[in-house]
Amino acid sequence: MDKELKRSIILDNYQNPYHRERHDDEEGYIKINSRNVSCIDNIDLYVKMKDDKIESISFDGEACVISISSTSIMSSLLEGKTIDEAIEIIKNYDNMIEEKDYDKDILEEALVYDDVARQPSRKKCATLTWHGLYKKLLELNEEK
Amino acid sequence: MNREDFPMLDGNLIYFDNGATTLKPNQVIDSMTDYYSKYCANAHRGDYSNSLKVDNMYEGVREKIKKFINAKEKSEIVFTSGATDGLNRVVFGYFKKHLKAGDEVLLTVSEHASNILPWFVLAKEIGIKIKYIPLDCHHEVVLENVEKMLSDKTKVISLAYVNNVVGDIRPIRDIVELAHQRGILVVGDGAQSISHIKTDVTQDDIDFFVASAHKFYGPTGIGFLYGKFDLLDDMDPVSYGGGMNAIYMSDGYMELREVPTRFEAGTQNIAGVIGMGEAIDYLDKIGIKNIIKHEHELKEYLVSKLKKIDNIILYNEDTAGSIVAFNVKDIFSQDVAIYLDKYNICVRSGNHCAKILNKAFNVENTCRISLCFYNTYEEIDKFIEIISNIGNIWNEIL
């Protein structure tokens, strides 16, 4: 993907993030807090499940351009996916960030972070909420 | 000033993160290399000439620190791994022994984590109560707010001389005077102050004082604790082992060595101590008065320039220290720091280890510039030019 296009997708998701809203104490929402202790990002995710599917994801918090935009992209990408599908996408995303083999076809806009490894300090920002959600999805799978 | 002494400044680095750690002059680096390459031996084992030399160097640094902070006795200086270690030793070695449930310690929300978390643990362990001195509208500590918080339960006030986010210089001497009238002890955290203001523990009459060498141009992993002799003599070590005991028997009997040796168990960070001593000599050579003057002028200059830029929010323009906390409107502080890094300008972003201060600032995170004597007007001009062009940020960092 061309650098200019990547930049505009990242900025668009930063300045007009997908579903940036809180659902504290609302029934049906699972809240997942992700914070990066070494830097300062702090984001709450609100995930609503319907049976085995992610019905909606929203979020709010204070964080850098990479954390916010990658959370926005993740939210729109994973809505409507089953737990197993979402886990598979996150695994592939993580492989991309860690410069391992991954399936390009399932990551859509998240491909904008394919060169984040060039700035190692940004890897945590790009995976912060993805890892938080991944852990929760594994728990949900175990409860099934 | 004296930039040629700092090998890190050979290139085009603009280092504005002196509150995190200062760069090291050749004199400090060379002194440590000399120890390792020319007379490496353990201290307190003086049976041969190198060991005797190490012993003399090691104890000589105690004398240098005594003079530098104007302590009465060199036995009142204990080597530590840094200010955090010093505070932990004071809290768990002295106050754990002398405080009881219900006793109160006064802190502020702007203290560094190292002056809050040990007290949290002590509160859990023995039931002391932590109270926070309210900050004034400039987020600073003023005497009348300290006075308001005193009660007959107050036993300790523990404060930084200079805060690491706001940069305000606290009225420690007045606070100590007030505290001592009521039999309250005062612990001073000198991590941010020691290289920026004159320290005089005798004039201040402070009871305990801690500092880290790496914040005054010395090496990392070494610092010192000052305590009034009688207080140190009544403090328990937190580490036991070689070098600090006089005798011990198989039945558990032991006698410890004198103050301060009883607080220095195990082989110490000798190279660090020697480097710290060299840093003291270096600071003495430049002169703390010259440092204060230069840093103050630099800060005024920086603030006056920053105020002319529309989208800069300044949090502490009126404080006397050499720290400037700011944000760029609508841009996250970490993104600003990453943008500046593209131009080799080092600033810190975040909450600066003062995680409960954000309530007072009403902002979670800031960028922090902490200046010191080797910073220049030209560096500030360059920084101002770059930060004025921050409209470019996304092209630069994405």
Provide structural commentary.
The complex is a heterodimer of chains A (144) and B (398). Chain A is of the alpha+beta class. Chain A has one domain (3-143): Alpha-Beta Complex (Sufe protein. Chain: A). Chain A is 46% helix and 18% strand. Chain A contains four helices and three strands, in the order αβββααα. Chain A has a three-stranded antiparallel β-sheet, covered by helices on one side. In chain A, strand 1 (29-35) and strand 2 form a beta hairpin. Chain A is globular. Chain B has 398 residues and is α/β, with parallel strands linked by helices. Chain B folds into two domains: 3-24 and 287-390, Aspartate Aminotransferase, domain 1; 26-285, Aspartate Aminotransferase, domain 2. In chain B, 38% of the residues lie in helices and 16% in strands. Chain B has 14 helices and 15 strands. Chain B has helices at 26-38, 49-69, 83-98, 117-126, 143-149, 172-181, 201-204, 229-233, 270-286, 288-307, 333-341, 358-361, 377-388, 393-397; strands spanning 14-15, 77-80, 104-107, 129-132, 154-160, 185-189, 208-212, 223-227, 245-248, 254-256, 312-314, 323-328, 345-346, 348-350, 366-370. Chain B has a seven-stranded mixed β-sheet with strand order 2-8-7-6-5-3-4, with helices on both faces. Chain B has a four-stranded antiparallel β-sheet with strand order 11-12-15-14, covered by helices on one side. In chain B, helix 3 packs parallel to helix 4 and helix 10 (288-307) runs parallel beside helix 13 (377-388). Chains A and B meet through helix 1 of A and helix 11 and helix 14 of B.
